[in-house]
């Protein structure tokens, strides 16, 4: 099973060209992906998308006919032209989707050092539960994708805590699911609760940052699997390959890794590889590929 995560910068390459087609083509060249998790996807933001594909969600749906598309808007507001503008995360799944959820992340006020307010915007996490083709039988897998605040460490820290809490809450419900009437076919019907999870996206923090450590902390109940950064699981002490500032330095002096994939501990025996496509110039970030072995028995 293959997953690619990529901050697409509204599908704008380093050449200034906005092209969802190029994003999909380069992702396909990287792997025959089952799951494509994209951050910074825009709808009707003319300053970002231009006029060629103003609704990037619709265009990606056309480009990925074999995948089911789930888009979560962190920003959703009416523009001066009266149209709704959206900006957020997208999950495209070739695997059967059992449930989709969109969680707003904390956006606390941050006055900053000068008390004038730190530049920021709303952030969210899209969670899609798929039926993963794992041996000995398919089972639910939570796929979470997010894009955390860049400018405000205070907000980013609150968002990391919220993500940790989201995972812990989902694990707790898997251990103790809500009571369900066997005859119910309404919104109280049984849900696909699972402790198994992948969390990916642009976290806007480097390896070794306190927040990077926090998201991997053990959960309160020892029966619930914590999240683990998959890079050291596969590569040991080798430094993370950079995923940002690789080909240009507009936002900093040196390349850094800030796009990660975390997995719940029960999935670690399945992890076969994680790699970064360092040559891509289709965005200001590099795509990250993770492959899990479907044949490993639980």
Summarize the structure.
The protein has helices at residues 20-30, 46-49, 56-63, 153-175, 210-214, 230-235; strands spanning 2-7, 35-43, 68-78, 84-93, 97-104, 124-132, 139-147, 197-202, 227-229, 259-264, 271-276, 288-292. The chain is an alpha+beta fold.
CATH architecture designation: 4-Layer Sandwich
Helix content: 10-25%
Number of strands: 12
Q: Could you list the spans in which at least 5 consecutive residues all have pLDDT below 50?
A: none
Q: How many separate structural domains?
A: 1
CATH superfamily annotation? Endonuclease/exonuclease/phosphatase
Largest sheet: 6 strands, mixed
Morphology: globular
GO molecular function: endonuclease activity
Keywords: Endonuclease, Hydrolase, Nuclease
InterPro entries: Endo/exonu/phosph_ase_sf (IPR036691), Endo/exonuclease/phosphatase (IPR005135), GPI-anchor_lipid_remodeler (IPR051916)
Pfam family, one: Exo_endo_phos
Short descriptors:
single chain; 298 residues; alpha+beta; 6-stranded mixed β-sheet; Endo/exonuclease/phosphatase; hydrolase
